[in-house]
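Input record, target 12 of the design panel.
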């Protein structure tokens, strides 16, 4: 548990110096909002393919640590290459390779962590909360540093921290793997035929797509509203710091009210945040409602991973986690970031948050309608 906690702390520390600021990084280099949306959508498009493929490979080879280590190293090195690329064409070509490996580490790591947590009798949320803690520390610190020194070196910091993550991966526990004689197409067919899982993925996509858009376009919202950009890091830090206790609360709420009702609540909380940001243009209120973002994410992230694990059979655990991530964050990100860039260019970032509210309202309703698909907690732990 301590090793997994260290991994999540360092992994999300690396995410904190990079992901909240990629839109500003490319914007500051002179790309339009539409071009920024195109680049981020391409990352999501690549992840839609990369994550299931890497999950399938993991389930067949049974060596998640090796895949995580290789992906972490290549993502860090390729990311550094953005500093050397000039022009949109070069950025797009490099993005194809960077996004492939960068997007694969998290879902494979989650599959490994949930398996170890189920085996050793502790909740996934108890280790995932350390990622929320480091994300809060990282975003708060980098928000101040980047505003003072600029955003040109974010991939350098990502490279340095990723190398430390690689050392931690070497010490992660291993799990026993059951290999089955089934083709890759047969393995993917099992996933597609898993109807409760597919319904869950489609519903989750509406909610997580809104979270992905908010992650990438919140800095541009600050820019359009004329807010001091040094507060961007604080906004992400406020959301992340509340996640730490809320992951602990989520593990208990999921047992008390069930996972699907908890996800319904998460979508409603997300929607409330976005509605406030659409209705009001106040930096203090914008910072305050980031608490809602942190609560919603904590309720959704750990719960969704455990729901996916409960639907998995032997030999499809990493596959389901990566398919879930590919569709919700990947496919959702493709549509969301592309549309988000166009909406921001033509209607403004403020109007974008009205759209996010509508997405979350629909997700909240669908979680309630489909709650009969909710697996029991005991079933999930046994999975």
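The sequence produced for target 12 reads:
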């Amino acid at each position: 548990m301590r090793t997994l906690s260290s991994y999540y702390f360092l992994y999300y520390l690396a995410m904190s110096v990079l992901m909240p600021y990629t839109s500003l990084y490319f914007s500051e280099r002179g790309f339009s909002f539409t071009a920024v949306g195109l680049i981020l959508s391409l990352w999501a498009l690549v992840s839609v393919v990369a994550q299931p493929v890497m999950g399938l490979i993991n389930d067949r080879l049974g060596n998640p640590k090796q895949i995580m280590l290789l992906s972490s190293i290549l993502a860090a090195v390729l990311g550094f290459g953005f500093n050397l690329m000039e022009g949109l064409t070069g950025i797009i070509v490099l993005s194809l390779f960077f996004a492939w490996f960068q997007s694969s580490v998290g879902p494979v790591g989650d599959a490994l962590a949930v398996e170890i947590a189920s085996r050793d009798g502790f909740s996934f949320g108890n280790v995932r909360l350390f990622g929320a803690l480091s994300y809060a520390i990282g975003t708060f610190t980098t928000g101040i540093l980047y505003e003072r020194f600029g955003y040109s070196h974010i991939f350098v910091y990502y490279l340095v921290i990723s190398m430390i993550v690689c050392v931690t991966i070497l010490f992660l526990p291993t799990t026993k793997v059951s290999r089955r004689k089934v083709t890759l197409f047969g393995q993917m067919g099992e996933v597609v035929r898993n109807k409760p899982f597919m319904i869950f993925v489609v519903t989750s996509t509406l909610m997580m797509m809104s979270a992905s858009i908010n992650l990438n376009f919140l800095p541009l919202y600050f820019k359009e509203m004329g807010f001091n950009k040094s507060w961007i890091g604080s906004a992400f830090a406020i959301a992340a710091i509340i996640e730490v206790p809320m992951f602990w609360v989520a593990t208990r709420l999921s047992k008390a009210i069930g996972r699907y009702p908890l996800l319904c609540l998460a979508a409603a909380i997300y929607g409330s945040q976005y509605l406030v940001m659409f209705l009001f243009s106040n930096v203090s209120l914008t910072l305050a409602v980031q608490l809602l973002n942190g609560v919603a994410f904590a309720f959704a992230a750990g719960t969704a991973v455990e729901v996916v694990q409960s639907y998995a059979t032997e030999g499809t655990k990493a596959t389901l986690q990566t398919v879930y991530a590919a569709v919700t964050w990947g496919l959702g990100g493709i549509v969301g970031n592309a549309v988000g860039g166009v909406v921001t260019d033509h209607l403004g970032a403020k109007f974008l948050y009205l759209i996010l509210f509508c997405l979350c309202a629909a997700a909240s309703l669908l979680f309630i309608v489909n709650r009969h698909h909710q697996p029991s907690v005991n079933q999930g732990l046994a999975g």
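Residues 187 and 193 are 10 Å apart (CA to CA).
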